[in-house]
Write a sequence for this structure.
C-alpha cells in the first residue's frame, strides 16, 4: 500500500469515507480544535514538544531532531500496539498534524509500509482550518432558515430540541456553544469550546443539512457566551422568516425554574451570576435579588429578572435585528408541559410549510 496526499478541500469532501481520522498533534493542540471525529495519537505529547523545542533553541537543531526521532518512534510503536492490532488490511485512515510536516509523515510512512492505504492532508490542520472558514458561507447560502423568536423562557430551546426528535432539521447553536446565550447562560461543569472548535462543529453540522428542507434555529445575538457566530450565518438568520413563540409569564417562570434547576439548588451559584448584572441594574437591585434568593424566593427573582432585565426592549431589539420579525407566525404554547410542546411543534411545522 502507499501514502496519498490530499488537499484540505479534498479531505473535507471525503471525510466520511475514511475508517479513522488521526490527529498526530499533541494533546493541547487537539483540545483547542480538531477535525470532526478525530482520534488523538500524539507523535509528541505536550511535555515532549516543550523538551524538543528547548533543545532546539539551547543546544542545536541536530540534537533536537535526534531526540525527537526517538520519541516519535516510541510513540508510534505504542499507538500501533494499542490501536491497530485488530485492523484489517482494508483499513484506510486520514492523518494530519499542524502543517502536514514530520509528525504526520512519520506516522503515515510506517503505517503505509505495514500495508495500509494512508491519506495525508497537505498543509495539515492549518490548511483544514482555512478551508473551514472559506467553506462555511458556501454551506450557509443555500439553506432555508426558520428562526424561532420569543422572549427569554418562552420555550425556544425546548421546541428546537423537540423538533429534532421529530426528524426536523435543527441547528442548535447554544448546544454547540455549551451556553444558554445570556448573562446567566453559563452551564455548570460544561466549559465552552474554543472559537475554532465551535466553528469546526458548526461547519460539520452545516454540511449535513439538506437545502431542500427548512432548518430551524433560535434567534441569537452575534455572541453565544464568549463565542462569535460567523457573519455569513448571522446575516442569513437575520434575513430569514421568523416564528414567534408565546408563553405566559407564569409558565415562563416555571420553565426557567426547571431548565435552570442548578440555580434553584445552588443559591451561591445563582448569586455569583447575578453579580454580573451589577453594572446594568445597580448594586442595590442586585443585592436585593441575592437576599431574596437566599430566602428561597427564587421564583420571585426570576419573575423580576424577566420583567426588569430581559423583557424591556425585546420587541424593538428583535425587530431591529431580524427583518421578518414583524411578519412572524405566532406559535402559542399553552404551557411548558409535553402536550403543549407537541401542540407547538405541530403548529411550527405547519406554519413553516405555508
Amino acid at each position: 500500500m502507499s501514502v496519498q496526499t490530499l488537499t484540505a478541500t479534498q479531505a473535507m469532501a471525503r471525510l466520511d469515507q475514511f475508517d479513522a481520522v488521526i490527529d498526530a498533534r499533541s494533546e493541547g493542540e487537539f483540545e483547542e480544535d480538531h477535525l470532526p471525529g478525530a482520534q488523538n495519537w500524539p507523535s509528541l505529547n505536550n511535555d515532549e514538544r516543550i523538551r524538543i523545542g528547548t533543545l532546539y533553541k539551547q543546544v542545536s537543531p541536530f540534537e533536537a531532531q535526534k531526540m525527537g526521532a526517538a520519541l516519535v518512534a516510541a510513540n508510534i510503536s505504542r499507538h500501533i500496539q494499542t490501536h491497530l492490532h485488530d485492523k484489517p488490511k482494508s483499513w484506510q485512515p486520514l492523518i494530519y498534524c499542524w502543517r502536514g510536516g514530520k509528525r504526520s509523515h512519520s506516522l503515515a510512512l510506517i503505517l503505509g509500509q505495514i500495508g495500509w492505504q494512508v491519506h495525508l492532508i497537505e498543509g495539515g490542520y492549518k490548511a483544514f482550518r482555512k478551508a473551514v472558514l472559506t467553506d462555511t458561507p458556501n454551506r450557509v447560502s443555500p439553506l432555508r432558515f426558520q428562526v424561532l423568536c420569543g422572549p427569554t423562557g418562552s420555550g425556544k430551546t425546548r421546541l428546537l430540541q423537540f423538533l429534532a426528535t421529530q426528524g426536523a432539521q435543527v441547528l442548535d447553536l447554544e448546544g454547540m456553544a455549551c451556553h444558554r446565550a445570556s448573562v446567566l447562560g453559563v452551564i455548570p461543569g460544561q466549559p465552552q469550546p474554543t472559537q475554532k472548535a465551535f466553528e469546526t462543529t458548526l461547519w460539520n453540522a452545516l454540511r449535513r443539512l439538506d437545502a431542500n428542507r427548512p432548518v430551524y434555529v433560535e434567534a441569537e445575538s452575534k455572541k453565544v457566551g464568549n463565542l462569535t457566530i460567523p457573519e455569513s450565518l448571522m446575516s442569513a438568520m437575520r434575513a430569514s422568516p421568523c416564528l414567534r413563540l408565546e408563553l405566559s409569564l407564569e409558565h415562563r417562570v416555571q420553565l426557567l425554574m426547571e431548565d435552570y434547576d442548578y440555580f434553584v439548588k445552588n443559591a451561591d451559584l445563582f448569586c455569583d451570576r447575578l453579580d454580573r448584572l451589577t453594572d446594568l441594574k445597580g448594586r442595590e437591585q442586585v443585592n436585593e435579588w441575592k437576599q431574596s434568593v437566599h430566602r428561597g424566593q427564587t421564583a420571585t427573582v426570576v419573575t423580576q429578572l424577566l420583567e426588569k432585565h430581559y423583557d424591556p426592549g425585546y420587541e424593538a431589539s428583535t425587530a431591529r435585528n431580524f427583518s421578518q420579525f414583524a411578519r412572524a407566525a405566532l406559535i402559542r404554547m399553552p404551557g411548558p408541559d409535553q402536550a403543549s410542546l407537541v401542540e407547538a411543534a405541530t403548529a411550527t411545522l405547519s406554519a413553516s410549510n405555508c
Notes: The chain has a mean pLDDT of 95. The domain at 3-133 is CATH 3.40.250.10 (Oxidized Rhodanese; domain 1). The first strand starts at residue 3 and ends at 6.
